[in-house]
Amino acid sequence: MVLEVNNLVKRYGKVTAVNSISFQVKPGQVFGILGPNGSGKTTTLGCITGILTADSGTFAWFDKGDFVSSRKKIGAMIETPNFYPYMSAEMNLEIVAHIKGTGYSRIHDTLKEVGLFERRNSPFKSFSLGMKQRLSIGSALLTDPEVLVLDEPTNGLDPQGINEIRQLIIRQRDRGKTIILASHLLNEVEKVCTDVVILKKGNVLKSATVAGMLVNGNTVEVGSEQPEILGKALEALGNLKISGPKNGRFVIELPAGYSSSFLNRALIEKGVSVNHIVQVQADLESEFLKLIG
Amino acid sequence: MIKLLKIEWLKIARYRTFYIFSGLYVLLLFAIYYGFDRIIHIGFLDLSIVYKFPNVWYYAAYVSSFLAPVLGLLMINLLANEFSFRTLRQNVVDGLSREQAFASKLVLSGMLSICAGVMVLLTGLVVGLIRGGMPAGADLWLRSEFILRTIWQTFGILTAALLITLIIRRSALAILAFLALMWIIEPIIGNLILKDIYSYFPLNSLDEFIPSPINFDPPSFGYHSTPTGVMIAALIYPFVFIAAGFYLIKRKDL
């Protein structure tokens, strides 16, 4: 087990930011922590990286080690990029290298990886938000750690920047790294994560694999230029859950084991031609909105 | 410890404020000591004794005791920066323990204090040679313990500055609290309310660790010793500040 969190509780005065959260992260997982702003994502990550003191509950890195003794195996960025503004990108990473107890050998490669090599001698304060964010991720990657903890890594980036960071995360995933990713962006989690916990007001609403959350139904959307004929043909097929027509299209819940091609064949046998037939992919967004709604 | 000192050095080596404050300390120490007999002008007194060996160590240390707050302000600035840049939490996220994060500032304080001691040695030596002439006799190092006292006094003031910054975190407010405590709050409480124990107040006992040469009762000028109780208080306080600092850093969110 990479990380095990048990009944973590963190209060700020009367507000309970994290209310008895438990989850486990296994090696190789890309573990998404998903939730709206203020749901406790950053607080959870703050506790497991040692910057916040939990009120109760426990967590263990690599089965029993605390965070400090595992520092070389974990690269983390929490909330905002935090560096010494008067120092260059390279000097800032030298400090990180000293803290992690590694040499300077990977600094240049890391700066190349996050696209900051050309600007390595510029002071951090001269960086754009996107560059700061990338340096922050670079700092997390510095020791080529087994585990990456990334808190809203694409926050404040433009679409191109978001895509660059996403590709970077996917590259790390494909190299077998374990990644813990907090985000309020559904499609970010959907595109890169294998597992997800959904938080709301400090509570775990749901914990599942991303694939499991997406393939939860067997829904097909079908349309025809003559919706009335299509509607009658669908009813004649028997025991199906049909809704519509809406804009000439019906949405049908098929029994398990049946696919859109089965429906297509059945309709052709009845002499009905369709101009639209699509297996509807349940997306994380509708699942998410259902849960937190 | 070497590792922590290296990390701190990387942070300050490129930080201009560090050079301004430490340069100010060095410059003022030399200038004020050099002009001491003109600054403190008490008609009938012959102040040439302040430049005679072995008195130089004591008088240079006495000048340093006025300037140690300059280093205190530097330390407040350095630690408050770590809060405002959020680099203290980043250092911890990167793998320093909370205790190490505080200890690194203590190690830096120790180094600065040793440097202050070395500056008292050099300033005493150079100004003494220029203004007092060659040392005569074997008692050259008679008052050299004041070099060590400078180191401890500076360290005490720096640990107090660190503790105040750990509590307040914001640079401007911490500086205000530090100066107010030293120049207003302690003197007012000490002189008006708790006269008997004023000497044992934290910052005042550290100040008296290097006693003033100016005495009013009876009027005289020259070295006199610090009462043992005050010495002990000044030796204990820095440990209290450090213990309180570790207590806070372990428990508060960063």
Give a verbal description of the structure:
The complex is a heterodimer of chains A (293) and B (254). Chain A has 293 residues and is of the alpha/beta class. Chain A has 2 domains: 3-213, Rossmann fold (3-Layer(aba) Sandwich), CATH 3.40.50; 219-292, Alpha-Beta Plaits, CATH 3.30.70. In chain A, 33% of the residues lie in helices and 28% in strands. In chain A, strand 8 (195-200) and strand 9 form a beta hairpin. The longest helix of chain A is centred in the middle third of the chain and has 16 residues, at 159-174. Chain A is elongated, with a radius of gyration of 24 Å. The two termini of chain A are 32 Å apart. The model of chain A has no long low-confidence stretch (mean pLDDT 87). Chain B is globular and about 60 Å long. Helices cover 73% and strands 2% of the residues of chain B. A two-stranded antiparallel sheet of chain B has the order 1-2. The model of chain B has no long low-confidence stretch (mean pLDDT 92). Chain B is mainly α and 254 residues long. Chain B has 10 helices and 2 strands. Classes of the chains: A alpha/beta (293), B mainly alpha (254). Chain A binds chain B through residues 46, 49-53, 67-68, 71-72, 74, 76-78, 80, 82-87, 91, 94-96, 98-101, 139, and chain B through 3, 6-7, 10-11, 14-16, 81, 85-87, 89-98, 251-254.
